Amino acid sequence: MSTDADLSRAVVALPKGFSVSLTGRRLDAKGPLGSVARPFPSDVIRLTVSGGAATLEILLPPNRKRSQSLLKTWAAHLRNLAGGLTWGVEARMKVVAAHFPMKVQVRGEEVVIENFLGEKFPRSTRLVPGTKALVEGDIVTLSGHDVEQVGQSAANIERATRIRDYDPRVFQDGIYLIERAHVKEAS
Hints:
alpha+beta; Outer Surface Protein A, domain 3; 2 domains; four-stranded antiparallel β-sheet; three-stranded antiparallel β-sheet
């Protein structure tokens, strides 16, 4: 049976070269690949870092479902920040062109999709800053150091190829996520 002390704290192991600090209500994380600043609810969660581990302690009643979800969400955010800033984040997408051959290319900070469903004008979408795209055949690989930025870039690309006014069961053309944004394996 769990006690309130077990429910009120979460411990996250931090890799070497990763540091985290709290300034007011802002969490600053730094690693070998860059840095990220994120708003942090310091009025309901206490963060202490010591000896390669970060301890999150909830200041709300710990036996409530909302308190537990808040604590576990921030523990996951911290794990994602640590892994992303240390090893990087990657997502993969597949280009599906059943009716017209699609041409996908990266131009600076934009992904340009030409000849989508035979359209005359190309569609394009911007990558979220901090995200890089690489097109190899029919696979688009997105990489960066923040899970949220890479995931949002993937969503932007998928939304740029949304089909309107056609039956989606017949016209399955588009660029679809096949491997969601995840922290690369430690090498």
